[in-house]
Amino acid sequence: MAIHIPEDKIAEIRRAVDIVEVIAESVLLKKGGKNLVGLCPFHSEKTPSFTVSPDKQIFHCFGCGEGGNVFSFVMKRDGIGFAEAARSLARRGGVDIPEKPLPPHEKRQASEQTTLFELNRVAADFFRQALLRQAAGQAALDYLARRGLARQTLEKFGLGYAPKGWDHLLGYMTRKKFAAELLERAGLVVPRKDGTGFYDRFRDRIIFPIHDENSRVVGFGGRVLDDSTPKYLNSPETPVYTKRRVLYGLNWAKDICRTTGSVFIVEGYLDLIALHQHGITNAVATLGTALTPEHIRLLTRYTGQMVLVYDSDDAGIRSAQRCIDIFWKEHVDFRRGDVFREEQADTRILVLPAGHDPDSFVGEQGATEFRRLAQSAPGIMTFLMERAVIQHGLSTEGKIRIVSELQAPLAAINDSVARALYVKQLAERIQLGEAVILERLKAYAAQSASHESGVRSTGPSRADTPETAERFERRIIAMMLQFPEIIPEIVQGGILEFFSHSVLKSAGETILRHRFQSPDQLPELLATLEEGPLKKMVVSLAMGDESWTRKGCKALLSRFRESRQRQASGLSMQVAIEAAEREHNEAEVTRLLSEKQKMAVRREKQKMSALRDK
User: Fold this and answer.
1) Are both 80 and 109 inside the same structural domain?
2) CATH number of the domain to which 191 belongs
3) Is residue 457 a part of any domain in this protein?
4) Do 222 and 331 belong to one domain?
5) Which pLDDT belongs to residue 252?
6) Of the candidates 168, 189, 178, 160, which has an alpha carbon nearest to the alpha carbon of residue 115?
7) Alpha-carbon distance 87 to 560, whole Å?
8) Which of 377, 409, 425 lies at the terminal end of a domain, its last residue?
């Protein structure tokens, strides 16, 4: 029976189980000051960066960014959901969980999903038997043999065959007492146009069962044996199958992804199967859709490095560009929030040599050569640079277009060192002075700030001074978690209203809603957060152990507020100047520029005075 675990029982489980004892079963922990440290179980590393706090009952890896409470650890370690992790920990801690029934609509939904999982399992068995045990499947077997797939591979992935004809599966499943309407709900049959019944969706096709990360069959893909169209036919979305949340092969790849710290992402069933057959088992495939934000979040549970693998033809390059856009917009760094930090996400783009897809490449060149090529695959910024050069050339006009095309991604890089290195790389690649590119980025930043002012009047644009802005905001959230006595001052001063970093602002608002008053409340606070960037951010900042004083905290808040007010003032001045320029009001432009210069002089005098006073 589906059950709901009451909040008081979750709190009881948390008190009954020591996170150190649970983690010590998987990680060799050694004393490191107040905390315990060891090698992270979620990514490959040689120097310990995985830290456990016995006092705060949390863990955090400073290498891959994973972190949370004991529930988070068990969920990620075992690849299970919260309810299952809670039940496991309850048994460990001797906590009885009463079986409180779910509301009727949730109970019906859970029951339907259970039935659909069973129905899909039976259908997968039908297809598998049709391929391996029936004469009708011989043509499909011959086709797969020509594609180089071994019998062992067919059995591992559960490949099958949908026989010719209109109702072979329908008849089989009906005899198994599954209603036709339920088969339609699972996407396995289609209603006839004349309303007289149903017919099989998959006919005369090789069948690829699609599993979720827990190895349950959620859908199917079917491929023709010839050149007819459509070449591939996939299950529609159902109550157990959502394309944007499922990756083909993840159930087989997830453990090796954790071990190797990387994953290869390809676009097709046969490409994925070919990689696995050649020993490259840390590989997954998208299912008739581009990579989605949900896919990226799912993969970050298992690995820190993603290698997107594409053909070198136009379609492959377009797919690569679409996926880069998803990474860009979604977050690329799931540990720090909504600012691009390629050096942490370590996302690479592998474009295979002309004429090859992953299947043909490993078949001809082998796994060793594939891995060697992957080692030299460029990161996102380098890939974008090379594509821009190929597209626009290195004429004067081409260089102008290249810089214009790359100014947005360059300006979005939050780490000043990484941005400087990429600017240097671009300058050398197109034989242009770094100062010219930096000047263009500065102009772009000012333009972005002006545009953003129409949407948000407080807080700087990320393109303004992102390092200083984020550093201030991270310290304030850390202060709230480690020295909560200062929270009333933060509320009184409206400090969070000045925040520009969305995840950090959400962290601050969450702390206030929870009425956080002591670091001892941290486990309860984390229990209210879903797994994701916000929870990781809170854990990362709570793990610190800085010596805060009320005087020091108030000084930091004062500097932060003053810096935001200065930035807002400067932004307003810039907007006013641009408005006067659009109206061709030269007198007003002159007056505003003069005032802007005076403000700059005053700030410089204040800075020098502060230096003399130190």
Assistant:
1) no
2) 3.90.980.10
3) no
4) no
5) 94
6) 178
7) 45
8) 377
Q: For residue 355, what pLDDT is reported? A: 86
Structure tokens belonging to residue 115: 């039935």
DSSP SS3 for 267: coil
Residue closest to 276 by CA, chosen among 149, 377, 372, 373: 149
* Per-residue confidence band for 425, with pLDDT thresholds at 50, 70 and 90: very high
How many domains does the chain contain in total?
A: 5
Query: How many whole angstroms separate alpha carbon 13 and alpha carbon 31?
Result: 26
Residue at 93 is within a domain? yes
User: Using CA atoms, how far apart are residues 342 and 328, in angstroms rounded to an integer?
Assistant: 10
pLDDT of residue 542: 86
pLDDT at 247: 95
Residue 485 phi/psi, 5° resolution?
Answer: -60, -20
Domain of 591, CATH number, reads 1.10.860
**488: preceding bond cis by omega (within 30 degrees):** no
**Last residue of one domain, picked from the residues 181, 213, 241:** 241
What whole-number distance in Å separates Cα of residue 57 and Cα of residue 70? Answer: 7
Q: 100 has which bridge partners?
A: 4
The region, left, alpha or beta by phi > 0 then psi within -120 to 50, assigned to residue 515 is: left
* pLDDT for res 604: 61
Q: What is d(CA 493, CA 557) in angstroms, rounded to the nearest whole number?
A: 9
Beta bridge partners, 217, equal: 211
CB neighbours of 440 closer than 8 A, spacing ≥ 6? 403, 404, 407
* C-alpha distances out from residue 20 to 85, 257, 301, 348, 411, Å: 16, 25, 21, 35, 42
pLDDT in tens, 375-416: 999 988 899 899 899 989 999 888 988 998 888 888 877 667
What is the residue whose two structure tokens read 């036709």? Answer: 180
DSSP 11-80: HHHHHHS-HHHHHHTTS--EEETTEEEE--SSS--SS--EEEETTTTEEEETTT--EE-HHHHHHHHHT-
Asked whether the beta carbons of 38 and 29 are under 8 A apart, the reply is: yes
The answer to whether residues 108 and 95 belong to one domain is no
- Exposure pattern of 381-409 as b/e (b: 16+ CB <10 Å)? bbbbbebbbeebeeeeeebeebbeebbeb
> Do the bridges between strand 262-266 and strand 305-310 make them parallel or antiparallel, or are there none, so unpaired?
parallel
Would you give the DSSP letter of residue 286? -
| Residue 560 φ then ψ, to 5° | -65, -50
One domain, residues 369 and 393? no
Length of the chain: 614
Query: Taking Cα atoms as reference points, which of 117, 196, 120, 186 lies closest to residue 158?
Result: 120
Residue 348's nearest CA partner among 323, 326, 378 is 378
Q: Which residues pair with 37 in a beta bridge?
A: 30, 51
User: Do residues 215 and 281 both lie within one domain?
Assistant: no
The Cα–Cα gap between 506 and 519 comes to 18
Q: Are 240 and 112 in contact (CB under 8 A)?
A: no
Q: Do residue 89 and residue 112 come from a single domain?
A: no
Pairing of β 50-53 and β 58-61: antiparallel
Measured distance CA(426)–CA(553) in Å, rounded: 41
Q: Give residue 347's domain range.
A: 245-377
pLDDT tier at 342, thresholds 50, 70, 90: very low
How would DSSP label each residue in 139-187? HHHHHHHHTT--HHHHHHHT-EEE-SSSSHHHHHHHHTT--HHHHHHTT
Pairing of strands 67-68, 198-200: unpaired
Same domain, 605 and 499: yes
Per-residue CA distances from 428 to 315, 379, 422 (Å): 29, 17, 10
What CA–CA distances, in Å, run from 605 to 270, 328, 568, 609, 610?
68, 40, 20, 6, 9
Residue 447 — very low, low, confident or very high, per pLDDT cuts 50/70/90?
low
Statement to judge: residues 407 and 475 lie in one domain: no
